[in-house]
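[step 3/7] fold_predict: job queued, chain A
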Amino acid sequence: MIIIKNQKDIAGMRIACKISAGALAYAGKNIREGMTTKELDSLVHDYIVGKKAKPSFLGYDGFPASACISINDEVIHGIPGARVLKSGDIVSVDVGAYIGGYHGDCANTFIVGNTTKKAKELIDVTTNSFYEAIKYAKVGYRLGDIGAAVDEYVKEFGFSTVKDFVGHGVGHDLHEDPSVPNFGKAGRGIRLSSGMTIAIEPMINEGTDRIRVLSNDWTVVTADSKLSAHYENTILITDGSPEILTVV
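[step 4/7] structure written:
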């Protein structure tokens, strides 16, 4: 069931989303060569807790950390630990914060030191595909319009869209209806309505769209070991242009 948010809900979500966005920006500002992914996770955790919120991901279905930190060929759900970041890595950080009964959810892919031209292009295209998608995140359009916009855009650059994982509604629960695919047919799917809050999150691979899940039952990697990038914001559908809620 899709929950249409009222003004009280939206006010609560703005708070949660601002904290989520702040935690993500803080991670991006402090990410560096030589730090472990656990150290990066601790920064995210402490930021969120310092704002009197709770990390949405910590303990979610047993997930053991406050942020999903995915490196290079890891698409999503990377578990922080002893791995040391090195120059050339691209690092996707996905964070969520819960406060006052509401969640915020956002992600970005950062570069450690210097990396390849192809990796930079992948990150830029992934980010830009989100902004192509929200051109259709308006009342009267359909979910298929959003997904088609992402998929068609990334294909122009020879990249592929992950099909096995999608965006979602956000609100009282971290994952709500509807599912928000990054692919589809324009003009198909649920029609968007004012008051919907959804996370649009392109997950874009350098090579094949096929993925596999590691033995930890969490971390998703590309099937061909090529790079992947992730970008996400929680947005509000309004009577006009969409509002990106996960802004600092």
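[step 5/7] annotate
DSSP finds four helices and 15 strands in the chain.
Helices lie at 7-30, 37-50, 117-133, 143-155.
exit 0
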